[in-house]
Design brief:
The chain has a five-stranded antiparallel sheet with strand order 4-3-2-1-5. The chain is 51% helix and 19% strand. Strand 3 and strand 4 (158-162) form a beta hairpin. 15% of the residues are buried. The chain has helices spanning 7-42, 55-84, 90-106, 108-122, 191-208, 242-259, 266-271, and strands at 131-134, 137-144, 148-152, 158-162, 169-171, 177-185, 217-225, 228-237. By secondary structure, it is an alpha+beta fold.
Length: 274
């Protein structure tokens, strides 16, 4: 029977409690150290580093890494504390390994979703507010989680897409877009005058629409159809603004053609029921 009144007992108990306190303090310091390292790697200060990431992505990745490190440190600290009280931790470590294996086998899709989400954020494949196409769905990204992306389409339907199921993404909001306008012209029209009017329309639209990044360019005749030739115009536009630019160009071309009596192709009149 343990004698609680002996100095040896209290000395051993004091030493054990001191070691437990040191383990807890060491775990806390280790956790703070790794938090600092992760923050410095992913969220640099004004003097940018090679590891620079956009702030939103950096903070998301930082939280994920810190959570993983925190749980690992907690587990090690608990095992060390139990060993101080002479608890056999071999079965605990083995059990944790078996449990981890069972969870890994049973949650392969979950793990795949999380890992894929990690690299989506790390590689900045898309961000909140981007318009993307993923498989047979397209819409604006409303939220990026660790496991799923929430995508709202043009009809207002919210699609929740697991990251593990994403094999290809088309991002419509990175860099510039291109507006393409095919202008049908009658064979009897003066092609020189037509090209001159088209260049005039391009110049005016390029000056008046801020969505146009560069003055639209008339490529020239690109095709011949029955009753008409096709002249193509291209324009570099801001993301998702190509439809607005195409509409403005068509309207300006129609007004200029009417003012200068450029005949409409017979095929186009027939299609409109003229």
């Amino acid at each position: 029977m343990i004698n609680l009144l002996t100095p040896d007992f209290w000395l051993a108990a004091g030493n054990r409690m001191l070691r437990v306190i040191l383990i807890i303090a060491g775990a806390g310091l280790t956790l703070r150290f790794f938090r600092l390292i992760v923050s410095k790697m992913l969220i640099p200060n004004v003097s940018s580093t090679a590891f620079y990431l956009e702030e939103k992505r950096a903070r998301t990745l930082s939280r994920l890494l810190q959570s993983m490190i925190r749980y690992g440190i907690y587990f090690v600290a608990i095992v060390m504390i139990l060993q101080e009280f002479h608890v056999d931790t071999t079965s605990i470590v083995a059990g944790a390994g078996i449990l981890g294996l069972a969870v890994g086998v049973g949650a392969q899709n979950l793990i795949r979703d999380v890992i894929t989400g990690f690299f989506i954020i790390l590689e900045d494949q898309y961000a909140v507010g981007d318009y993307i196409a993923c498989g047979d769905m397209a819409g604006t990204v409303e939220e990026i989680g660790f496991r799923v992306t929430k995508l709202r389409d043009a009809n207002g339907i919210l699609h929740i897409i697991p990251h593990g199921g994403i094999s290809r993404v088309s991002n419509y909001t990175r860099g510039h877009m291109q507006a393409v306008i095919n202008v049908p012209v009658a064979y009897e029209a003066d092609i020189g005058q037509v090209l001159k009017l088209l260049k005039q329309a391009c110049g005016e639209i390029g000056k008046t629409l801020p969505e146009v990044l560069e003055t639209p360019e008339v490529l020239g005749v690109v095709d011949f159809h029955s009753g008409e030739i096709v002249v193509r115009i291209i324009a570099k536009t801001a993301p998702l603004k190509q439809v607005k630019v195409e509409t403005a160009l068509r309207q300006k071309i129609k007004l200029l053609f009417d003012d200068n009596h450029i005949p409409a192709p017979a095929e186009s009149i027939a299609r409109m029921g003229g």
